[in-house]
Amino acid sequence: MPDDLKDGRIVIVGASLAGLRAAEALREEGFTGSLTVVGDEPHAPYDRPPLSKQVLLGQATAQTTELPMRRDPDAEWRLGVRATGLDLLEKRVLLDDGESLPYDRVLIATGTRARPWPNKEEAALEGVFTLRTREDGAGLAERLAAGPERVLVIGGGFTGSEIASACRELGVQVTVTERGPAPLVGALGGTLSKLAAVMQRNHGVDLRTGVTVTALNGNGAFTGAELSDGSRVDADVCVAALGAIRNVEWLAESGLAAGPRGIACDAGCRAFNMYGIVTDDVFVAGDVSRFPHPLFGYQLLSLEHWGNAVEQAEVAAHNMVNPGPLQRPHLAVPVFWSTQFGLNIKSVGVPTYSDHIVIAQGSLEARRLAMVYGYKGRVTAAVTVDMAKSLDYYRHLIESAAPFPPPPGAADRAIAADVTIPSDVPDPSVLSHGPTVALTGHLPDRRLTVV
């Protein structure tokens, strides 16, 4: 490694939001060496959240989602090329075109991809979609604009719910199936997910919970689906919104701690090897990472959040070009938002890291509220519905490990804040979509059992 950390060769694998922000931050931090960004898609880095919102509604096209560059990172872009391996000893990134790129430090920001419908033949039917890439967004938007009879959305997580919301806004009939008891239950727990279910049904969604799709029907083109309760749904478009798969397969032989839940790293974004030893020259950022967070019991967190990708990329970039004593931890409190069925849902902290909740402001009936989550007497998260202005206050409570239930001043009703109810967070295995925030140690209220 060069003596001067501001020089040498850095390779970023993943032309993603995290990859782009890291490249920019490296230059802002004074890195003067060679910088290469590898991306398996042919496009420059683009923004994914609009794909399930504005693009489906025809308010924007998939081609206009390119991310603005804050500054030119003066990088060599290797787009449309997939990384196939990482040689930690030789310090090389292997590519599918047979080339390999030497590095002094490497940043892995390969993100996630949509979990496909498991039956390959059914998934190949014309009219069956996932939603993750620009092509996915453009193809689905085109089908929705053509006015299908009915759309089937499999999975009631955030992406599935946003797609269903867009369908109703376009006047398209939509059926949503969810294996769990309600939409968004994996992210928000039982109480708020009931509100989500009411909102979907009030907006004309045919919501089926506690069921799975057992087969997709069609002869070349999708015509409908069979459900586990014996019913069937006739539809001409199907979207599998089954959560995400972390792009780690290319690291199988690398010796890094990479698995289905991402690549484990320390709070400074340095990757662990498979023996739990931290590496000096391999860094991780964005959706593909798992990192420990002191506010959540040092559990490893996997986050599929826009803000986390940006903040973690900046911390990783800083630590790649600064010596140990100047390195910073990535301790940002997770923040997430979603707009669906006329509601603006914002979340701060980790709602799944909870045992109880309290409605601190507003009410479920008014559909405008702030719900605070606690674990073992401490505030760990808050979710607001059409009350985003309160979120900063709750973020402060989380960061300062404030007692739960929150003290007066956090609530607009003196009495109700004392009435706590179980947060009712389901085991992720009962959902048809993955959670967008996953605690990848044991869940806090489930002790590990030795069999």
UniProtKB/TrEMBL annotation:
An MF annotation (GO) of this entry: oxidoreductase activity, acting on NAD(P)H
GO cellular component: cytoplasm
Cofactor(s) the record lists: FAD
SUPFAM superfamilies the UniProt entry points to: FAD/NAD(P)-binding domain, FAD/NAD-linked reductases, dimerisation (C-terminal) domain
Lineage: superkingdom: Bacteria
InterPro entries in the record: FAD-oxidoreductase/Apoptosis, FAD/NAD-bd_sf, FAD/NAD-binding_dom, FAD/NAD-linked_Rdtase_dimer_sf, Reductase_C
Originating organism: Streptomyces corchorusii
This protein's record includes keyword Oxidoreductase: yes
Keyword annotations: FAD, Flavoprotein, Oxidoreductase
PANTHER family: APOPTOSIS-INDUCING FACTOR 1, RIESKE DOMAIN-CONTAINING PROTEIN-RELATED
Domain Reductase C-terminal, first and last residues per copy: 336-412
Annotated ranges, domain FAD/NAD(P)-binding: 9-313
Protein's UniProt name: Ferredoxin reductase
Signal peptide boundaries: none
